[in-house]
Amino acid sequence: MTPKESGPVARRRRERAGAVVAAVITAAALTVGLAGCRDVSAKTADRVELCAKIVGKTFTNPFPDDAEKTKRDIRKRADELDEMAKEAPDEKLRQAIESTAEKMRSAEVKGKGTSRTVLGYISEQNDRLKDLRHTCLNRDDYK
Fold first, then answer.
1. What domain range is 63 assigned to?
2. Number of domains forming the structure of the chain
3. Residue (of 87, 115, 86, 80) closest to 101 by Cα position
């Protein structure tokens, strides 16, 4: 054992050593805490990105020249949504994506020259996106 040093020099060394130990412990705690925040931020970013991609896939041409081609395109996009649902970070979002895909498959496509209003189209899109919009915009789902 070494004898304990006394005096002002020894006291300063102990204070510095204590400060260094405290700084190391604080840095470690902050690193762990920030890693947790980074996980939450990454999850939130992934969720927001996925929601944006999905919304982009759901919009269709309200007055297509070729209704059959548009129907095929919508069904293809619905299949893509089903694949994207597998990437969903949580069950609620996955179900909303699958619900949106199902609504897209059952969407009625009206060709050019048929009776259709812009308000009717917007209403259809709004109904199609209802579950997804609620899930993607609910801030409690990002915790």
1. 43-142
2. 1
3. 80
